Amino acid sequence: MFGAGLSLDQAPPFRVPYRFFISAPLFGIMAALLFSLLSGGDHRLAPEVIVAVHMLTIGVFLMVMTGAMMQMLPVIAGAVIPNPKRHGAVIHLLYTVGVLLLGAGLYFGMMAATASGGVLLGVGVLYFLILALGNLRRVRPFSDSVRAFVYALSSLGVAVGLGVLAALYYAGVGDYREIVGQLHLIWIFFGWIGLLVIGVSFQVVPMFYVAEAYPRFCRTWGTALIFASLLLVTLVRCLFPEQTLITKLAALPMVLLYIGFAVITIRRLRLRKRASKDATLFFWYLAMGSLGVALSLWYVSWLVEWSFGMESAGMVLGYGFVLGLISGMLYKIIPFLVWFHLNAKGHFDIPTMREMIPAKHIRMHFYLYLLGGSGLFAGWWGLVPTVVGGALLALSFGWWFWLLLGVGRYYFKQEKRPSPMAMMNLAQ
Amino acid sequence: MSAISEFMRADHRRCDATFSELENLAESGQHDALSDALAAFKKDFLEHFAMEEEIMFPAIEQKTGMSMGPTQVMRMEHEQMRHLMGRMEEALKQGNTEQFLGLSETFMILVQQHNMKEEQILYTMADNVLAAENVDIVERMKAI
Ligand SMILES: [Fe+2]
Q1: pLDDT at site A140
Q2: A55 touches chain B (CB under 8 A)
């Protein structure tokens, strides 16, 4: 009974999460290329934008977060996923084909492709949700992080349901498109992504940066309060289909809770005991700073209906907060996994994590990432041609891909080497 | 009731602190304080391993009758960490800070994943199966 949560092979094989991680920058490059195709004028609802946003949120964000969950569930939560190779491959295939079909359908206005892409994605997410929640169900005791994961996964379920509704309305069924679309976004960003980030932070910030644990109240009640605040937003929005001051005030608790989280995280990181200023720390600060800034800006702009502010806030939230955090985390996760799996095979002459991806290459990515963000912003607001902005973005994603590919290639080359342990066994 | 897990969690944080101190000194190149920090680091970790391997694990194994279960996995991970500690010490003695910091990064993640498993699963298990003698176990661990 007790042994279920712990076994040596509880970490899934390297290729399981890696498959998801290495795909992400490729979808990022696609999003960047689409962005560069934008022509001037009002492009808010241009097909290029809608497709690029889905490439980013599904092809990059969902892809990486699913891969990371496949890896983290056994380690952080003690929920072992049986047959990770097969499940991982199925989910990855559904995501990849789904997002490509959806993108092509939206871009070329092909209803059948959009619908089948949406269905494949829905099935993929559902598959992942059942797998994750099903395995988490058996975990006892429920730690604060596990609770956050359950809320996050539940939010993903709600978001997908709303996404399906939104797609139906797009196809001309019913007319609540705007409300459903808004709620879909809110559940994606502040339910699924936000709560997952919180659950991971509860573990990662104190442990890897040797910082103080999050305040007890925040750990025990924070995630439940956030989930409740999302329900409040949804309920009020449904009761008042017309956007009024009430619907806006209803979002205030959610906004304040997240700003609070960002502030606490930054303080924890600043007071950390481990001085080491590795590149991932820049990404953490940037992500948390972006979260606080984006939410404040978004809320204020929403109150006064200032579209420049709201759209800018959206970009800071997606690019600065989510992408920033993901980029930083992968530089810890992937090299460690390479080391871990090779070490478990008995190779003791593996280079250290720093040698696998030199710190200066990660710093380079950080600068390119900032440059790409400026390209996005400047291109969107017409300060530079979108071709320029898109090229900068593509450059940043391209460099990211190159670095991740390098570590992967190293792993697969080393994996083929005969294990010293196997040789020792032969000799006996 | 949760005496064991509380005590051991706190000990993990103590080990984290000594580790950070060593790493901080190595990174900022303060070589005079380094050998003391290295000694403190080794002492804290080896003590922690000993408390688990000599007292808590055998007690759990005796109660549950499982000697090849989770405790065995934890022992193997301790072995990995001891090996890395040796390499870190070597790197410091050769004055190779880059090498040391690369190893310490790996060590840190390994330790933290290990600690998560212990805090999440093993210590809770210890609290449960050793509920009757938990105070005694803590006393014996402190004596190491
Ligand atoms: Fe241990």
Answers
A1: 67
A2: no
CB-count burial class (<10 Å; 0-12, 13-18, 19+) for A44: exposed
Q: How far apart are CA A298 and CA A388, in angstroms?
A: 26
- What is the predicted pLDDT for the residue at A357? 87
Alpha carbon distance A407, A357 (integer Å): 7
At B110, the amino acid letter reads L
Give the mutation candidate from A353, A356, A360 for the B interface (greatest B CB count, under 10 A). A353
Tokens 């605040």 sit on residue = A229
pLDDT in tens, B77-135: 899 899 999 999 999 999 898 889 889 988 988 898 888 888 877 898 899 899 888 88
List CB contacts (< 8 A) between A210 and chain B. 16-17, 19-20
**Residue contact A275–B23, C-beta within 8 A:** yes
Q: Within chain A, what is the greatest distance between any pair of CA atoms?
A: 78
Q: Which residues of B touch A (CB under 8 A)?
A: 16-17, 19-21, 23-24, 27-28, 64, 66, 69-70, 73, 76, 80, 83, 98-99, 101-103, 105-106, 108-110, 112-113, 115-117, 120-122, 124-125
Give the tens place of pLDDT for each residue, A57-76: 999 999 999 999 998 887 77
Contact by Cβ (8 Å): B121, A5: yes
Our measurement of the distance from residue B120's CA atom to the centroid of its chain's CA atoms, rounded to an integer in Å, reads: 15
Every domain of chain A and the residues it spans:
289-412
Q: Give distance in angstroms: CA of B11 to centre of ligand 1.
A: 10
* Amino acid residing at A107: Y
- Go through B6-36 and write b for each residue having 16 or more CB atoms within 10 A of its CB, e for each that does not: ebbeebbeebbbbbbbbbbbbbeeeeeebee
The structure's pTM equals: 0.87
Place of tokens 């041609």: A385
Q: Do B16 and A340 touch (CB under 8 A)?
A: no
In angstroms, how far is the first alpha carbon of chain B from the final one? 22
Q: Which two tokens stand for residue A161?
A: 């349901």
CB contact under 8 A, B121 and A210: no
Residue A274's H or E segment, with its range, is none
- Structure ipTM: 0.75
| pLDDT 10s digits, A141-171 | 678 888 999 999 999 999 988 887 877 776 6
Q: Pull the structure tokens for residue A164.
A: 């399906």
For B87, the token pair is 């390499």
